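Following the same procedure, backbone shapes were mapped to integers, as reproduced here:
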Amino acid sequence: MTPAWARRAVIEPVWTAVSGATLLEHWRELERTQRLPLDVLHDRQEERLRRITATAARVSPFSRRRLAEAGFPDGLRSLDDLRALPVLTKAEIRLAGDAMLARGVDRESLLEFRTGGSTGVPLRLLISEEISHRRNAAARRSDLWTGWRVGEGIGAVWGNPKLPQTIKERLRAELLNPVIYLDTMVLSPESVREFARAWRRERPTLLFGHAHSIYQLACTASDLGIDDIRPKAILATSMMLLPHERRAIERIFGMAVFDRYGCEEVGLIGCECERHAGLHMNVDHLVVEFLRADDTPAAAGERAFVVVTDLINDVMPLIRYRVEDLSARLEQPCACGRGLPLMSRVAGRVADFLVRADGSRVAGISLIENTVTSFPGIEQMQIVQESLERIVLNLVPTPNAPVGAAPALVRYFASVFPGATIDVQTMSRIPQEPNGKYRFAICRVAR
């Protein structure tokens, strides 16, 4: 097994020099900028905003039109100018198609990502390899906040993992990025036992993956008496980390979990540091706004829609893009000393909100938190709102679930959704989405 110090100090620098990758260069710069004062970071943000919007006005037909209509045909001049632009939605991106892209770009050289989001309708995104290096550098910076070090192995809990296929990919994985996978699409006692065997053999130090899947791993390992999956750090991403799941993971593995927030569209948005006082925003690469439903700026601490402007994607500019998640800006600085401002943990997605008959909305994730922790005998639950008149509760009971818990659960949901029929379906497991993630609340009511 190649030692971590050799990967870090010898192999990666040589590989980077030969391949021409710029990840190390960008990462070293980000290591420096995280300690800059907030006002300096804002000045850097503003300069990058001027640069990216000037580029967007010049190369992207869609962005040029939007900027010109807002009165800025040559690009924005300041962070305050952002408010003159309308918020960009997923539907508009799909409708714009290739008009989003920079003219004359070599499409064959671009990397493509697809995200189905909550609607299941894929959103196609393109970036250059250089942008990918920058995003990976930001992810590495936050990886290091956990105590993990470059060159150390990773245990990834992921759905449909992309395993190395070619000789070059396998060589790169062994020499640079050793990862063992637990495929959450086939998570079972036997797959967890196999993951534990691989962990003992490869000895990774970072446990990384979907928040709920890490929770399932922790519970299954505990049930099986497996107590030697002992990472140096745990990093949960891609899904909301529910409070009761966080507590269980930390109790079983004996350490704090780091929460990370990002999306395919713009990469890393925020991540916890060792102080766990909120998520440090990636202001080197993004402008993050928190807007109310009427698109006015929310106050500090007020839960609102997350809206991002990508400061590095000159291939497919995303300016004031609504991610469809809810969070809040935090005003206080972090005791860690980093200048990067804080946001709260994500409080839910727009699509997770269920609708009452009177038109008011309720956060599905709040209902999950209230019920899973308050009603005995619930291992997992998923709320599916088929219509205003019918809600289905997909319920995975604990092995010794008490008799009579379901009627109490039905009464609770009937009080939240007066007049609706509440049906309970007992299941052995909650089905995953094709990407391996779980959805705890699904609203099928037309919006």
In short: Residues 351-443 form a domain with the GMP Synthetase; Chain A, domain 3 fold (CATH 3.30.300.30). The chain has a mean pLDDT of 90. The longest helix spans residues 38-59. The two ends are 54 Å apart (CA to CA).
